[in-house]
Amino acid sequence: MRARRAEASSTLRHNPDFVDLSLRNARDSIPTMIESSRPRGLARNAANYGDRDFALYLRRSFAKSIGYSQAMLDRPVVGIVDTGSDYNNCHRTVPELIEAVKRGVLAAGGLPLAFPTVSLCEPSLFPTSMHYRNLAALDTEAMLTAQPMDAAVLVGGCDKTVPAQLMAAASADIPCVQLVTGPMLATSFQGERLSACTDCRRYWAQYRAGRVSRERINQIEGRLATTAGTCGVMGTASTMACVTEALGMMPPGTASIPAVHADRLRAAEAAGALAMQLIAAPIRPSEIITEHSVENALRVLLALGGSTNALIHLTAIAGRRGIRIGLARLNDLSDSTPVLVDLKPTGEGYMEDFHAAGGMPALLWELRDLLHHDARDVTWATVGERLVQPDFVDRRYIRARAEPVSPVGGLVALFGSLAPRGAILKRSAATAGLFETEARAVVFDGLEDLAARIDDPALDVTERDVLVLKNAGPLTPAGMPEAGYLPIPAKLARAGVKDMIRISDCRMSGTAFGTIVLHVAPEAAAGGPLALIETGDRIRLSVADRRIDLLVAEDELARRRSRWRPPAQPARGWDRIVAEQVLQADEGCDLAVLRGG
Ligand code: FES
Cα 464–468–473 angle (5° rounding)? Predict the structure, then answer.
């Protein structure tokens, strides 16, 4: 088995033309599967009728109504998770990707069977897509384990879809290959390039500040997302794609292929072929998602200057395998990992530039001395085996170690009396001049309060204050929205203020930027210290000391705590399950009942 795995790993290792080779090896591998005595293909997971032979007889009878020949029904089965949806623009290409995956499976001698799961599109969901990430994970895990399949290809792309699929794969622990839809292309428009969604936020901030007209903002609305695919910057979707490749759950070199590039379809075909290899020589997510691979993924997240959301998702994925990501360890890794990738929201490039610059193989090469070389991927190759010095790297987008964007990682965890279990600051997207600050808090009790008062000309606020939003964490009906990028109060924005310290128990988009402290844990709705803060309190931020402190006397906090009441529970349904089960940000916001060992 090990020899066959080693053979399989050679299909992708050191070879950019991974498609043809993976198909060849997949065909070589089929006999091993057929020789196995264990139930395979449609004979797996017989329904419980109390008579297994009858259950399979019934299944075969109904399967024949689909129109497949007996020879096809006897083949090993690759399930394909279909997240195509008319609501999900980022997944517009899923139908053609699934056709390509099927091509790869069929050519390798398997039977591809696609099935739908929950599809999550970031801007299309109320209250947030995050509120439904665990529902998608639960749905996907259930279908991966309940239906008969020998391996699966997970087709996703938008922010929460890939994390949900990897959480499901980690728990179901059947051989899986992650395929992403890929990033959209940037658009040239009147002398500049635009793409979702850093440019959306940049232009909206200028519109709020009165520097862009209503006519202009409407014109730009139609130029921000002009092709299929996920957001074109190093936002959450792109970060998760790169992190997934570093984790080993995705074929090497495929994270950043643009959605509309023909290579994306070839990658899909190869993913189908690779799934067939995984049937012949099973490699389970539990063998790929290990402490070492998770640390490699964290290194990549930091070197990307990637999305803060990816930390929550990676924590949840690792948590499914009983692996804990400690925030103190994150700080150790961050202090020894340079930011090497120069893309928006912190730099100037887009994902297509990163891909053309060399993509993940080039980045991994730069990080080679910081990685665990024994971690394995879906091809059974180790990181050490995958590392190859690239022929070409565009240093505008992937820096050399000697000339990093920043000598330390993009994220830093803060602890202190305001966040006993931690909070996150994306220092690579923040204003260094604000890193050592003591200031007055201007507090908003929730999203409605924020919306009602932030632009009120009478709001008592200056650029030296700290804006605080509470009651927007994972336990709240708000669903931990990407509202941590609190808008600069209109009167300050019009006066030219571009950044202020902002603190909350919610998240921010991976495409956002600013001195923004997020994921405060415990959140206000759980009775954390954030619940007790009031306008006028003093807050001290010290990035150097990794501290975020509320400077209020203990007896005063005790008085406020005696008055605090937890929020009312939702009456029923998914909202109720979330309110009863969701974990805090430092545990990945998974449902407690779904975590692993
Ligand atoms: Fe889907 Fe940005 S909205 S990736």
Answer: 155
Minimum CA distance residue for ligand 1 atom 3: 122
Q: What is the dihedral of CA 358, 345, 309, 444, to 10 degrees?
A: 180
Token pair recorded at residue 144: 């991966």
End-to-end CA distance of the chain: 27
CA–centroid distance, residue 587 to ligand 1 (Å): 24
> pTM for this structure?
0.94
| Lookup: tokens for 279 | 């049937």
For 481-535, the DSSP string reads: -S--SPPPPHHHHHTT----EEEESS---TT--SSEEEEEES-GGGT-GGGG--T
Pairing of strands 436-444, 466-469: parallel
- The answer to whether 112 and 102 have CB atoms below 8 angstroms apart is yes
Residue 11 has pLDDT above 50, yes or no: no
pLDDT digit string, tens, across residues 282-312: 999 999 999 999 999 999 999 999 999 999 9
> Tens of pLDDT along 131-140?
999 999 999 9
**Residue 348 buriedness (CB in 10 A; 0-12 / 13-18 / 19+):** exposed
If you average pLDDT over residues 477-502, what whole number do you get? Answer: 95
Tokens of 274: 């690779």
Which residue's C-alpha comes closest to atom 1 of ligand 1?
158
Atom of ligand 1 nearest to the CA of 122: 3
Does ligand 1 have an atom closer than 6 angstroms to the CB of 158?
yes
Q: Phi, psi (5° rounding) for residue 38? A: -75, 155
Which residue has its alpha carbon closest to ligand 1 atom 2?
A: 231
- Atom in ligand 1 nearest the alpha carbon of residue 157: 4
Output the DSSP codes for 281-348.
S---HHHHS-HHHHHHHHHHHHHHT--HHHHHHHHHHHHHTT----HHHHHHHHHT--B-B-BTTTSS
CA of 57 relative to ligand 1 center, distance in Å = 44
- Asked which of 18-22, 103-107, 196-200 is least confident by mean pLDDT, the reply is 18-22
Q: What totals of helices (H) and strands (E) does the chain contain, helices first?
A: 22, 14
* Residue 237 Cβ < 6 Å to ligand 1: yes
Q: Do residues 244 and 178 lie in contact, with contact meaning Cβ atoms separated by under 8 Å? A: yes
* CA 51 to ligand 1 centroid distance, Å: 46
| Residue to substitute in 94, 181, 231, 350 for testing ligand 1 pocket (most ligand atoms within 8 angstroms of CB) | 231
User: Which residues are CB-contacts of 555 (< 8 A; sequence separation ≥ 6)?
Assistant: none
DSSP string spanning 261-299?
SHHHHHHHHHHHHHHHHHHHS---HHHHS-HHHHHHHHH
Question: Which tokens belong to 275?
Answer: 């799934």
- Angle of the 308-320 helix axis to the 291-304 helix axis, nearest 10: 170
Distance CA 419, CA 586 (A): 11
Tokens at 351, concatenated: 């994902």
The total number of residues written for the chain in this structure: 597
Ligand 1 neighbourhood includes 123 CB (under 6 angstroms) = yes
CB neighbourhood size of 373 (10 A): 14
Torsion angle of C-alpha atoms 88, 92, 97, 99, degrees rounded to 10: 100
Owner of token pair 């495929």: 254
Helix (H) or strand (E) segment spanning residue 442: strand 436-444
Dihedral class, residue 65 (left if φ above 0, else alpha if ψ from -120 to 50, else beta):
alpha
